[in-house]
Amino acid sequence: MNLEIIKAIKGLLDIPQKIVIIPHKNPDGDAIGSTLGLWHFLKGKDQDATIIVPNDFPKFLKWMPGSEEIVNFEKDPSVAKSLINNASVIFTLDFNHLGRIGQLQPLLESSSAAFVMIDHHQEPDDYAKIMYSDVGMSSTCEMVFNVIEGLGELESITPDLAISLYTGIMTDTGSFKYSSTTSRTHLVVAKLIEKGAKNTEAHNKVYDTNTPSRLHLLGCALKNMVILEEYHTAFITLSQDELDTYNYKKGDTEGFVNYGLTLEGIVFAVIFIENREEGIIKISFRSEGDFSVNEFARAHFNGGGHTNAAGGRSDVSIEETISLFKSLLPQYKDDLNA
């Protein structure tokens, strides 16, 4: 990675700082793994560091070492505000636009702290003093490893730090199957296992802790799947009533969208999930090959992400959202048939 970035980060960490680490809203495995990995590293260097999440994260990530120390802004807003107001350095991980952190956005916009961005999503904003942005990376966790390596601190990697980064890489690469997984990714993972990351334990705790209600919800989602062969597209819908029927908990729909891509001939998969409380339809997009769901989400659904994985939202009903989505497909027919 860029030596100037390493020098700049080292300059910040050469003196005691009050550090806040923040992932995006609705944090996933990479967001939680990268923030915990960085937190373990900074604590090992006697820095005063705290992780603040904009809102809660899934139960299947709460086994990770140090997760009990994370401050949830929605539950403890006064604590979070005080920490942000007093911070001298703020690390923002796994997002590159302050719009991704919900109610924390105005607090960060008014902060005088030095910002450090570590992220692998496309089209970053320029709010950070130090920007480590690389869309070619498998995950933000791999990037945190690169920072630690660049600082010459690989010996500082503890088993707790290692399992945090391993878990984030594992989840963001689809257990190492996505095209973003490189030979370098595997070398990083090998080093993390060498440092004490128990790979089987991470897999079991993330993927093998289903509840009966989650599996029933998956059955409902698959029953709702619509296949549009002409456009090599499959989409799933889940209404708020269906979520309520199956006792939905945060994280229960993680990975559901990927089932569409397991169908032969499908290159574009989407899931539409109604969120009545926020008044939106949450959308996840996945693709195979060269079809950019990042561009599709940015153009039509107030979102973005990566070429093959992106998110978005709609402010109209689920029926209107589906109608709009289907009306867009003809203009992408050639791309989807490529």
TrEMBL record:
Protein's organism: Arenibacter troitsensis
GO molecular function, one term: nucleic acid binding
Domain of life: Bacteria
Name this protein carries in UniProt: Phosphoesterase RecJ domain-containing protein
Residue ranges of domain DHHA1 in the record: 247-315
Annotated DDH domain residues: 18-169
Family annotation (Pfam families): DHH, DHHA1
InterPro entries the record matches: DDH_dom, DHH_sf, DHHA1_dom, Oligoribo/pAp-PDE_c-di-AMP_PDE
